[in-house]
Amino acid sequence: xxxxxxxxxxxxxxxxxxxxxxxxxxxxxxxxxxxxxxxxxxxxxxxxxxxxxxxxxxxxxxxxxxxxxxxxxxxxxxxxxxxxxxxxxxxxxxxxxxxxxxxxxxxxxxxxxxxxxxxxxxxxxxxxxxxxxxxxxxxxxxxxxxxxxxxxxxxxxxxxxxxxxxxxxxxxxxxxxxxxxxxxxxxxxxxxxxxxxxxxxxxxxxxxxxxxxxxxxxxxxxxxxxxxxxxxxxxxxxx
Length: 239
Fold this sequence. Notes:
Blueprint: E1 43-45, E2 50-54, E3 65-67, E4 78-81, E5 95-101, E6 105-115, E7 126-130, E8 136-141, E9 144-146, E10 161-162, E11 165-169, E12 177-178, E13 181-182, E14 188-194, E15 198-205, E16 211-219, H1 225-230, E17 236-237
Parallel strand pairs: 1-5
Antiparallel strand pairs: 1-17, 2-16, 3-4, 4-16, 5-15, 6-12, 6-14, 6-16, 7-11, 7-15, 8-9, 8-14, 10-11, 13-14
């Protein structure tokens, strides 16, 4: 049984109805998990067991809309998926973040997001997330562990998942909110294990139209979500 190495003092659970979609068959493929230690793209440095990144700092042309009209965001702005819904097919509008991890271990992942249009808790509330080169990527709720479909591991979450991607949702209307869960109607927190120091790839893909992303953190060891929220933004290294 896997137990997390992180504290989770600020991630509460709200059992709400998550939208149900018909799930497609997952493709179980063996992926190359070699860790790339040579920076060939903009990278974000982990420090003292914490990574803290503004989503809008992603480099290059992207399919997401950059915004700064909704109040309460951190940093200089945020990103919104304004393309069509992609409930069953992850991989659209991929955002790539290279994380330079110096402290190996199991990190909890939480993002700050928002339903940017509408007032329904289960719409415009989720995006896809993948850590394809990490040693492990899973959802945990107490003693229950789930893995993405296509990872070769079971059990898998309720609801959509494919090709190593988790659907990551929240259910708060009208505000930017720190929550990242997977598995419909049975919210599991998100964890990723980096077995050694190196540069790892985090990918985000558009799923629900009008889901907004502001900032994400990862934290391990004695660090808590509050610590990660209050930490300085991760140093950005240019290639």
